[in-house]
Amino acid sequence: MLHSHPVLQLGRPRRSEKCHSSYHFPKILHSKMLNTKTLYLFGLLWCMGLLQARAELSLNNYGDPAYPGRCVIDDGKSVVLLNDGQALRLRNLPCVTIFCMSDGWGSLFTCDEGTPPEDCYFSSYVNWDAPWPDCCKRKVVCG
């Protein structure tokens, strides 16, 4: 896929696939094991309730054949390429973060809208620039 937008590459570009395949095997195996450990740890933290209940998570494919193994984020103005283990905070959306996991697959972290107490409403975010999920906190106005 060709993009007409500027491309911002985060991290080092991947090595050429022209090298002998046995050279890449240990690195790929280690990368897969690390990602499995990361997912396992995240699952444990989620089950233990250490993450805020007001946050939501979805698994998405951000892959693009033009950039194999990378997460490709196109926001309409530019394209950002993420390596495995890198994250990107989308500044134009409230508290949205994309974490690239493996082979173009990534987690999209957003805030659960929730429901304010009766006769109340949510106003602005308390700290838009805080890391996820702290950026999800919103002011509640009752009246």
TrEMBL record:
What gene is this protein translated from? Dana\GF27785
Q: Which Pfam families match?
A: SVWC (PF15430)
Could you list this entry's UniProt keywords, alphabetically sorted: Secreted
**Principal subcellular localization:** secreted
The domain of life is Eukaryota
Give the signal peptide range: none
Name of the protein this chain belongs to: Single domain-containing protein
One GO CC term, this protein: extracellular region
Q: Which organism is it from?
A: Drosophila ananassae
